[in-house]
Prior knowledge:
The protein is of the alpha/beta class.
Amino acid sequence: MEIQDRHIVAIDLGTSKIALTVAKVNGENVQIVYYRETPSEGIRYSSVFNASQVSGPLSEAIRQAEAALGIKITQAVVGMPKHPVRLESSTGKIEGRGFDEDITAEDVAELKRSAQDMYPLENPNMEAIYGAVAQSFSDGENFQIIENDIIGMTSDVLEGHFKIFIGKKSSLAKIDTVLKKAGIVAARKYFTADTTAKAVLLDSEMENGVAMVDFGGGCVSVSVYHGNIMRHYASIPFGGKNITGDIQIESEGSIGRDLAENIKIAFGACMPEKIQNLSDKIIHIKSDNGEADKKLPVKYLSEIITARVEEIFMAILYEIQQSGFADRLMSGIVVTGGCAQTANLGNFIFDLSGYRVRTGYPRHLFSFQGCEGIIETSAATSIGLIMAAKEDRTLNCAFAKDGYVPEPAVPETQEAEPEDDEPKETLFEFEPEEQAAPAEKAKKAPKQKDRVKWTDKFGKFWGDLYETVNQEIENEKA
């Protein structure tokens, strides 16, 4: 039964932050009424590592949301870990339907469930299927049919080809443990690669070919789309926390992680040659133990960040090449996530790859009021969870308490502001990214056939390095 004026609560368990979002939903109307980020502990590479360390901040975040809104939260939708996840292929088939029977959306959904249920996991005790994405369908005579076209056709046979996402079963169990400790349960778990993409990417980008890079604190993932279908997914166990750690190391241990993080946010940028007015500035870090103050030149800080970002994106470009769609990404790369707004990041990725680059903010699919940060790149995962969960008209994650009467689902609200055509004001002087000057950037962009030449020189080297580092991470976690 469809519920009117319901609440959806989304929890994004990130390596650097826990984000709690509450939305009021009535039909297709979505109003974000609460959003807050809390520093996280006990999460590594987007997976829960220490449930007790995670449940404390989460419990407090839930309590604050309940107090602010006058509601009792009983359940939430939550994102699955982004790493480690591997991609496999699976096929499902239904025969004997009847030659004059229309293929329905329910038939397609049943075929998808069948492909997931029948997939032979290598180790069912250790692995779980996080989700599946349809690649193409066949009616026995016609092949490579997309989902929208197969629905309504008549056939005795329905066959589908799917990409299956496989991750660790223990990671899902730890999410349940964390939520239980916080006094709630998981209403739904979503593999966020697809939900985040649908919250950030334009339909035309997914149709023409695009790689969405989610640049988080603990890992970076890439989802490749073409023909409105996710064709490839991969993640690497590096992210913003590695950059913060590099800053700590270069300060010779004189600063803590929190200060290093604040320095990164306030002064961090790629491409030291483009931070013109700050290139000669020096950050003075006062010592509280009587030692001499530490001096960190802003230009050197940028060199540290640039080196790590280059390492990360060479691995991402390697994965794009592995997808088989590297030369078909007409819409280039869209970067979202907490680190996506690093100054000069888009220009640096363009120089590395030749792809046009856009910063991925949540699309204007909702209204909001007084929710600072909800339209920033760090909220993209949360918005993706909300928009995916709203399709279940029976889902309600909270109820009013203590006589509190909720407002109408869509009062007078502040609409999400459109993305500016001018670059945002920052501490740095740098060239605008692709979205700020598409015509000018198009002139500079290399020809399509030149865009993946970097793989000729670096592909094998970075591929071998990437596989070695991944294995070391797995050994460490084991």
